[in-house]
Amino acid sequence: MIISLDESNLTKEFLAEKIYNLANESFATASPYTKEQFLHSFKYETYLLYMDKEEILGFLSYTKVLDEAEVVNIAVLNQAKSKGIGKQLLHVLYNELKNEQAVLLFLEVRESNEIARVFYEKEGFIKISERKNYYHSPVENAIVMQKKLL
C-alpha cells in the first residue's frame, strides 16, 4: 500500500530513522542524507511510502514548484527490488502531479547507475543534460532526465 508521510501513524523521528536505514541499504554509495537531514526534509519534500504492514519497503520524495516537479530520492529495500515497487511509487506520483496540473518531472541519476537509467527510460524519461562531478563519494556525473506528464 502506498501512503503519504502524513497518512502514517508513525512518529516523524521514527520515519526518518527507517527511511535513512532503507536509503543507506539501497543506494550503492550509502544514504544521500543523514537521519537529521531526512527529518528536516519532511518540511519541504513530499514523501510517498510503500508500506507492508508497518514496514517501509520503499519511498519516493519529490518537490513541486508551479507546473514542474523533481524526484529528489527514490529507494527500495534490496530484498524487495524487482517487485514493481519503484514503478508503483512513480505511477502514484504521476497521477498526483497530473491532478495538480504539473507538466514536467525531472530527476538526476548517477551516470554509472545503468539499472536505474534503463528503468527511467522505460518510464518515459529522456536524458536532457549532464551535471559534471555532481555526486561525491565517489565523484561522478549526474544524468538529468525529464518526463512530460501532460
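the 2nd protein, sequnce then structure:
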Amino acid sequence: MKEHGIEFLIAQYQEEQARLKVLINESMAADETLMAHYHAQALYLLNRKIQTLQTIEDRWHYEKLFLQSRIHDWEEKLDQDLPEYLRQYFNEVLQDNKAQLEKLLLAQRPKIPVGKENLFDQVLENLFARKIKNVRLFVKKSDNFYFRFSYSKDTLNVTLPNVKQLSKKDFLNEDYLEKFRLFGFSPADNGHMLTLTVSGNRNDLIKKVKTILSRIIFDVFYFVDFENESCFEYVETSQRQ
C-alpha cells in the first residue's frame, strides 16, 4: 500500500470499495434488495471520490483508460475475418492509439520533493521520540485552522482548537462538526475545541490518524482552498519555547 499523500487515501477508499462489493453480493444472495440498494448507493458515491482522487493524482488517468479500452476494441476487431482495406485501416488506428498511450505513460508526473514523501510520518515519529514538541499541522493557515498533537503513554491526542472562531467565519458549520464527531472527535472546553484520542503502537497510531485526517480533509472540506496553506510547525526539544 502507498503510504503517503493522495495514493494513501485512494488505497484507503479502495479497501472500503472492496468491502462494499462483498456486502452487495451478500445482500443479493440473501434477497435483501433494499440493503443491496443502500450499499450500491454508497459504492456509487465512493467510486466518484476515487475517480476524483485518481484524476488529481494523475491528470491523464482517464485518457489512459479510454485509450486502453480503444486498443482492446481494435485488437478484437483485427482478430476477425476482415477485408484487407479494413484490416489496414484498423491497424493504423490501433498503432496511433498505442502511440498516444505510450506518450501519456511516459509523461512525467510532478515529483514529490526529496524528504517530503512521508513528512507526516516523520513528524509524528519525532514527536513519539520526544525530539520535538508543540506540533501543529496547519491545514489553512490564513484562517488559523490547524490540528495540535501531543503524545503520552502510547496515546496520541489530536486537538482542533478555535472551533467557535472558525464557526463564526462560516469555515465550520454544524454539518461539518457532526462529521468530525463521526470520525471520533469529541467537544471539549465548552465547545471551543474538538479532541481525538487514539491509542496503540506507534505504527498503528500514524496510520489511524493519517486515515482520519485525510478523510476529513477530503470528505468534509474536499480540498477547499488549501493549496500553499498547509504546513507543520513544531519546536525542537533542544530549543527554548
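The first strand starts at residue 132 and ends at 140. Helices lie at 5-29, 33-57, 61-78, 84-106, 119-128, 163-168, 174-182, 202-220.
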